[in-house]
Structure to design on (200 residues):
């Protein structure tokens, strides 16, 4: 009787283990699928598109409509905007292949390594936003000289977006060339500030 009872207990335990194994096998694909979906969402590329600026024509913007800039002394292999600079000029990063929105030439939209991250590039220019642009449509960063070069918005053709000379304006923010930024002048000695107003 004792042996029979022991055998029954072993059968019951084996049945329970088998049932748990089947349940785990049924759940595993769902978990794997959810994990894969999560990975796909995290790997979606950053959107870059073109909008029309009243002052600079068709320029690149990010998915939220903020103007995108590049620094003239940088390249896919060279980074000059580091440290304090990235607080003023946040780099446009992506976790996957960037998405070319309306007006963007897809074959010229790429990435360059920035530490362990990927920074979006266009025609080889590393892209940044500007902390001084507080509303969609602002282009306050155009013409600022800082961190070894000059900052420009980028046209849809990959060239610096430039406007006709306007009346002189003081530098944005008041930083000097040693660690912050100051507006560069045009050939006529005037600034090329985008102004503080929002809207395209």
């Amino acid at each position: 009787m004792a042996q029979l009872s022991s055998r029954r207990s072993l059968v019951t335990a084996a049945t329970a283990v088998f049932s748990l194994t089947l349940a785990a096998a049924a759940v595993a694909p769902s978990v794997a699928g959810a994990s894969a979906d999560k990975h796909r969402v995290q790997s979606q590329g950053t959107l870059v598109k073109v909008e029309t600026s009243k002052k600079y024509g068709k320029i690149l913007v990010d998915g939220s409509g903020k103007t995108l800039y590049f620094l003239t002394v940088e390249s896919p292999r060279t980074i000059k905007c580091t440290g304090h600079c990235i607080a003023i000029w946040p780099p446009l990063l992506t976790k996957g292949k960037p998405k070319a929105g309306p007006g963007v030439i897809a074959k010229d939209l790429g990435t360059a390594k920035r530490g362990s991250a990927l920074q979006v590039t266009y025609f080889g220019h590393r892209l940044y936003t500007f902390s001084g642009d507080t509303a969609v449509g602002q282009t306050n960063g155009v013409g600022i000289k800082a961190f070894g070069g000059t900052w420009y918005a980028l046209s849809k053709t990959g060239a610096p977006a430039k406007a006709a000379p306007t009346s002189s304006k003081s530098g944005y923010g008041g930083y000097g060339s040693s660690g912050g930024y100051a507006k560069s002048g045009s050939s006529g000695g005037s600034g090329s500030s985008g102004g503080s107003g929002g809207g395209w």
